[in-house]
Design goal:
By secondary structure, the protein is α/β, with parallel strands linked by helices. 30% of the residues lie in helices and 16% in strands. A hairpin with an 8-residue loop joins strand 20 and strand 21. The structure holds ligand MGD (2 copies), iron/sulfur cluster and molybdenum atom.
Amino acid sequence: MKAILEKMLNRRRFLQATGATGAVAGVAGMGKLAGFTAAAGSAGVTSTASAATFADAQVTKNICHQCPARCGINVYTHNGRVTSIYGDPGNPIANGKLCPKGHLGTYFLYDPDRFKGPMRRTNPQKGRNEDPGWEPISWDEAYDEIATRINELRENGEAHKIAHFYGRGWGPSDAGLYGAFGQLVGTPNSAIGHASMCAEGSKRAKAATDGNNSYNSYDYKNANYLLTFGASFLEAFRPYNYLMQVWGHMRSKSPRTQVTAVDVRMNPTMAAADRYLMVKPGTDGALALAIAHVMLTEGLWDREFVGDFDDGRNRFRTGQHVSRNRFEEKWTLGLADWWNAELKDRTPEWAEGITGIPASDILKTAREFGTTRPAMAVFERGPTSHTNGVYNGMAIHALNALSGAMFAEGGLFYQMGPSYGSGPADAGDYMDDIARDMAGRHPRIDMAGTERWPFAGTMMQETAKNHNAGDPYKLKMAMFYTTNPIWTAPDAPEWEKMMSEIFVVDTSPYPGETAKFADLILPESTYLERLQDSPTYPFEGWPMTALRVPAVEPLYDTTEFGNMMIEIGKRINGPTGDYYRQIDSVENLLRHLARGFEDDPGDNGVDSYESWVEKGVWYKKPYHWKQHRGVFLEWDGDGYNREMSEEEVGEKLLRTQSGKFEFKSSHLEEQADYITQHLAVDRDRVGFPQWVAPEYTGGNRDLFFVTPKTPMTAEGRSGNIPHAIALMQPSVGGNDRTYVEMHPSTARERGIRDGDRVRITADLGTIEGYVRFMPQNRPDTIVLPYEHGHWAQGRWAEAQERSVAPGNPNEITANVSDPISGLVAYYTGKVDVERV
Ligand SMILES: Nc1nc2c(c(=O)[nH]1)N[C@H]1C(S)=C(S)[C@@H](COP(=O)(O)OP(=O)(O)OC[C@H]3O[C@@H](n4cnc5c(=O)[nH]c(N)nc54)[C@H](O)[C@@H]3O)O[C@H]1N2
Ligand SMILES: Nc1nc2c(c(=O)[nH]1)N[C@H]1C(S)=C(S)[C@@H](COP(=O)(O)OP(=O)(O)OC[C@H]3O[C@@H](n4cnc5c(=O)[nH]c(N)nc54)[C@H](O)[C@@H]3O)O[C@H]1N2
Ligand code: SF4
Ligand SMILES: [Mo]
């Protein structure tokens, strides 16, 4: 790492970076931060800023860690201390700007509660109130202990009882290492990712309709109409920081992008939109179907993408069948069948009865969406975190086919990957007999991809339940990377039992809930101290990958998670150890990947590992494909000059069985029996986007319970950041309150006044909070933002839990999931509320 820093210093204009590797800088100096922060407050600071404070600064490139937006940051270091963090002007997502959380990175680095080195538990008892009795050990001892356990389990035919869990994985140098690990060690449980607790619903709705099991990239800059369903554009979604920037563009350009927002509460996106539609939770599918109905009856679909009746005369009439062979489809499949089976009766009046949204508003929205071009529909966790999530999502995404937005200017498409070189070795060449024998022998502990969850790629939330029931088996050891399901999963307390029974390794730098139940702590370096790559989350489609370059030497005895995986691997018997000796280290792996840039230099000139370190990001515009007026075109180096054949479109873009956007999903039809067993859907209709009523948990309880993210939420990682908590005030809570938003009439019926402490009861138990009147919200829905109620994670987080009110919504959120996507139905619970 010193080498990297020295190289950077030579390349940069920054002066006299003394003591750049100040490993001794500790928490004692935290008070000094304020002065630097204040001085740095002037606008437009860049890496060449001439302000006195910056004259002796060293700047390194990194990526913010608080959310999946992956904003590029410039990290300013003075005398070996990180003093400030700004958006990197050379990073296309950040454009020199950050959301409020991005600037708080120093608090993650200088968090006084961080683990200082590897530790072993001495107290055999595990529990929320048990002191683990940490005893410092060396890294060699830690790696040896883990590898010995893995070697033994492998010898005993129990390799499948070794599991890895991860949440925010960034790229090949961390979570990307899992595939080889599972293959070589012989476990199907490396790794279980958190996608089924995150936003898997939107991906599966897209897999079912356009064949891409992925989040979309969006061309917001050129859109003239945006219809958002439960995607918190100005609070969460992603990339959050960029969304705020592009919102400014959309709302000030000519013509202004019109926005209709659909949500269950008055969030900033709803407040800032031209129209807000306050939908009953779980019913977005009905709304989208009615919009589709109007687009068809009024002839507002995009004929160049969808096709038309053979004589150009519109025969879509409410309640009437159309003859399927009179409609000639272009890039879609099954429109007439869909109309006949579902859409013909889905009028705005019908949808009003289900969603609670006036039919006149639905009609207006449909007409605007249908007549404005380009127009696109965006959705994320709101409509999909329900038992009917995939069907809701399919109905919404079908609007993007009807409006011709697929792969079009001002529309949506799919993210390209970076031009990486290959890694140092191929795991397939290093499998031993055990690895070969174990391949395919056991199901995953979460049963994803089995007959229980045939569509799901991962089902993290099922793990603890399955383990505790010994079905399909019990795990023996688990290692966690940037995930904390013991606090974030539904029915979170179920994890406490499992974690008490198995050998747990946590890699978090912080003493979180998982760490409290861990047997070994292998603390990772914080993001400002570590080397790591990060291909972009879906953004504008063209490929991009950024790099975390250590700004300082690790303050304590910590390392990269990727290096932990590699060092453990080296200690596994047989050829597995040889494989990891080839990989060698995170830096070696990244150097191999960067060789791909030599043949394909980025737009910013990045063509090597060294230039990647210097600029922090490789990217290459433009996106390679475009649908224009029903013709698919491919970039030939100069322009979109090459027309694509139907076969090419099916291979590269519309990756369904038919190569078309399917209004009748062949993907779902493959599992028709499964779907009819789990949802109230007729067998011959499973493929259509359709109205399926959500199954609310909580029986006769009368209030919907919604627990969304707010701007200062860092995916459950901001609990011990005092400024993040403080900035959540006043509507969400913070220092000394957790606020539950409630409609005043709902409160008064229960004798509750603004500010009263209340008890929220669900089937699984109770939590508490303080009521905040929100007259703009639905009377039948209470809102408790998510991030409060930590019982570990450091002193501020814990003090908050003690003084505020125990407010982790996941303790009372039932573990129920959409049977298709497997996404947790986080927003389907019903609760009672009473004054304490
Ligand atoms: N600030 C911030 N931004 C983030 C993150 C973060 O932690 N903090 N995390 C990132 C991650 S991991 C993800 S997955 C994304 C998720 O991004 P979003 O999906 O935008 O996030 P959520 O807050 O889960 O839910 C979105 C909205 O759905 C609404 N909602 C609930 N039920 C319904 C419903 O039935 N219908 C409709 N229409 N709306 C409903 C909620 O009120 C909420 O406003 O955000 C990312 N961005
Ligand atoms: N009620 C409710 N529940 C939700 C959501 C919601 O909106 N409402 N959102 C859901 C969504 S979208 C998601 S994505 C999940 C997220 O839930 P998880 O997958 O559990 O992810 P986090 O809460 O971000 O994980 C935090 C863990 O990472 C550790 N950590 C922090 N920084 C680092 C680091 O640099 N290195 C390592 N190795 N570890 C680190 C922390 O100590 C903690 O243990 O939560 C889901 N749960
Ligand atoms: S949007 Fe996310 S990645 Fe970007 S600065 Fe904010 S928290 Fe960091
Ligand atoms: Mo997520």
